[in-house]
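Example 119.
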Amino acid sequence: MNKEQIETLKKKLEENKESLQGTLQRFAKESDKPKGDWKTVYPDFNPNESGMEEEADEVEEYSALLKVEHALEIKLKNINRALEKMKEGNYGLCEKCGEEIPYEKLSLVPETKTCTNCA
Ligand SMILES: [Zn+2]
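Predicted structure in complex with zinc ion:
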């Protein structure tokens, strides 16, 4: 990879990071301990106004959000890790075998951690 390609991927990673954080902030709070973890905020509901059925819906909605939150959190962690690796100068190398990951693969998913053989 040349410098220009790395810069392109860095920009992509930073854009993805921002949009992910924006999405997470809509329903979760970033916690300080451990840093980088997100907690889904339980939706407010008034027990006097909501019947049992509605309550069940909210619990369902909450557990669905938890799953989404978890997936987004993992993606965000991978992005942060990729940005760290750029700083360290070992970005784009497979974490399992150390081979270079093809630019085509990285341009689709810039936070990719392994090469095609190891994935
Ligand atoms: Zn590999």
